[in-house]
Amino acid sequence: QSERLEAAIALAQHRGFVFPSGDIYGGTRSAWDYGPYGVALKENIKRQWWKTFVQRRGDMVGLDSAIILPTAVWESSGHLKVFSDPLTESLVTHKRYRADHLFEAYEEKHGHPPENGLADIPDPEHPDKVGQWTEIKMFSGMVKTYLGVVDDESGLHYMRPETAQGIFTDFKAVQQTMRRKPPFGIGQIGKAFRNEITPGNFIFRTREFEQMEIEFFVQPGTDEEWQQTWMDLCWKWFTGLGVDPENIRWFEHPKDKLAHYSKRTVDIEYRFGFVGSEWGELMGVANRTDYDLSVHQEKSGKDLSYFDPATNEKYIPYVIEPSFGLTRALMAFLVDAYHVEETTTADGKTDSRTVLRLDPRLAPFKIAVLPLSRNERLVPTAKEVADLLREHWDVDYDDAQAIGRRYRRQDEVGTPYCVTVDFDSLEDHAVTVRDRDTMQQVRIPIDQLVSHFAGLLVG
Ligand code: ATP
């Protein structure tokens, strides 16, 4: 699996899915740019998510809240306090570690906490070097920025580390303007920022990333059932878009390790194949109870409860939060779709091809139009066919190199169908349509192409 991961990452980089940010200046490990195929894949993931969880549900609405919110939001939510970790640096290797993790590891091994604190703890890479640590410093996970004309602390603001808080602060406005009653939810897709200590593993952990989050507001007492419902829906979303169920699993957060707002959190993990730990968190479904709305009500002084006229009951809704990492999901879809297959060439030789078996709904391009050669009679017809199809779908056009090589290039980026314009096309006004997965070819009249693909490319 780790070889597959390496290969998928290499493909993503050399085929224009993902580039290191600022690469001409040496790049940065903590941010990545999405190239032409990457941005198309990312948009398609977002579209599928929005269709499934917002458009097709009568109990969901959408929102796009700001990235920089009033600082009071982060004071109330607890992020300014909780989002900071105790860090220490090894004087031996100059690597940074979370002190609480070092303490936990020590206690697990010895059955008791270190009596003299860091002084008792060896370097993880050099067990003979004990107690060689810098003083513990608190490190904030919040990304800071400064707004306003005066460049001083008065302008200090924070970039959101999750999209969720914008949903909580707008809860009342959405509920009232849309005249909703629980159970109902609000979905949002957008950037989030975290000053991660160790960004890495490609786009798995970055300082700037995207999330797709749902805050689903329910009557207290129905929360446990709703959490199970949302867990099932999230699992189904990934498998419905082609993720192999063998490559995902549930992880139940132990009660004593839950986030400060959570009653229960269950993650879906994906088998990324990282060296060291194969599985990595893909998304989580948390029961945030009435924690967030309650603290915002208390700190803002605004009533954030819901009054149910049918029962004359007033309550602060409980919240079930399915929280997806969009860029992490993109990485999982890429790795899961990556396949190398044995094939047989026309003259009977065995060959191999790399194919991204992306669900057609996610594929960056749905169709590639390929003239058999760069012939002056084929090219204009091929361009007309491409323009015809572009009205409906994302279409790639490629006339460089041999046709076999071009099929392979389209397989590599997951294009479900290739349309080849050959010399016969000039006579019979038909083209050859090749299927990415089966490599079967069928002849279709040009004037029936749109209806042919309309039947194949749905959703
Ligand atoms: P982790 O334990 O991996 O740091 P987390 O538990 O802090 O993640 P949440 O706060 O639950 O993550 O965030 C919800 C989702 O957002 C995660 O499941 C993940 O998909 C995504 N996410 C969180 N942090 C990052 C990051 N630094 N880079 C990319 N995606 C992230």
Automatic annotation (TrEMBL):
The UniProt record gives the binding positions of ATP as 194-196, 204-209, 281-282, 325-328
In its keyword annotation, does this UniProt entry include Cytoplasm? yes
Q: Where does substrate bind?
A: R98, E162, F209, E210, Q211, M212, E213, E321, P322, S323, F324, G325
Q: Where is the Aminoacyl-transfer RNA synthetases class-II family profile domain?
A: 6-364
List the molecular function annotations (GO) for this entry.
ATP binding; bis(5'-nucleosyl)-tetraphosphatase (asymmetrical) activity; glycine-tRNA ligase activity; protein dimerization activity
Q: Which family does it belong to?
A: Belongs to the class-II aminoacyl-tRNA synthetase family.
Q: What is the protein name for this chain?
A: Glycine--tRNA ligase
Q: What is the gene name?
A: glyQS_2
